[in-house]
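Good morning,

Both structures are done.
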Amino acid sequence: MIVTAGEAIIDFTPRQWGSESGFLPRPGGSLFNVAIGLARLGIPTGFLGRLSTDCFGQHLYQYLQENQVDLTYVQQGHEPTALAFVNLRETGVPEYAFYGDQTADSHLKQGEIPPLDQSVCALHCGSIALVRGPGAVVYQELMQVYASKRFLSLDPNIRPAFIPDRDSYRHQLSQWIQWVDLVKVSQEDLQWLFPGGSIQETARRWVQLGAGMVVVTLGSQGAVAFMDEHEIVVGTESIQVVDTVGAGDAFMSGLLAFLYQQDLLRSPLADLSLPLIEKLLIFANKVAGLTCQQAGSNPPRLSDLI
């Protein structure tokens, strides 16, 4: 089983009903989205995080159940659910405005987390869960505890509103990268982290820190994977993009699903052949592409890829 650990929130996405416009509440949160994406691809998946007992939290809990995500590691509390309003640029790229202090997702309790079962072969972390509220330290410690004990993956999924000190965050990120096997990061995130910097230099520096593979998503240009001595670029098919909400999370789901399906989560990524890495990126691109052809974060099912 793969466990994703992090935030579950409600995204309010823009919708048009005839002459009326408004926002439609949808389940969201990067780590929540990855869990849903993995489960829909037929991968045994669990979610580790804290949900509210309010109406939104109950909806998130039910949505996990409906998608057959294991709830062993889910906590519940009286804190409210965090809300995010999505604004789509003309290109379909989303911008987020977050609302809610002292919310459930940011108050994960260390003492209430059961040890990961031996059936859990991989742990995926990242996004605002690592920087927001008292729960951030708990998620960070979780990564440290399972470093070298499980396959670890990380997607920083930068949200500048939650990072007041860019230099301090860079330092933290370098520490986390030393613990993980796989880093997935968007070109936009790298541009925010290191304005004017080189994608290649940053990715190779992260590989030197200890990441077995660094994958950079390039939007409509595809993705590139960096390893010790190799750089593999794979483009995307031409598609009609509705919006890109959840595309990065869907891509991450595709990466982890492929590695699980090929029984590669217990082997060093450095041992993967170049043709296999190319297939990995092609699969993840396809999963993300199907998500972009629908409104909001609605990752595909395995049957959609056949």
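Second structure follows.
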Amino acid sequence: MAEAFASGDPAYIAHALGVVARAKGMSQIAAETGLSRQQLYRSFSASGNPTLRTTLAVMKALGVRLTAEPRDPAERRSA
């Protein structure tokens, strides 16, 4: 999952989260987040586009934290 976040590609990040969530079990993720299994499967499908709220809830259920840190000045110039 770290590789997905490092890529900065939203689709890749959503895909990686979906893979990990399915491995843990969508029923368990649904119970921990209060979201329905259907909503989770739809959000993390190939054509899905999970909201930030859904993404953060799933990350919390997976024991993953989203953090922000300043980018390296060299990266900022190339972006």
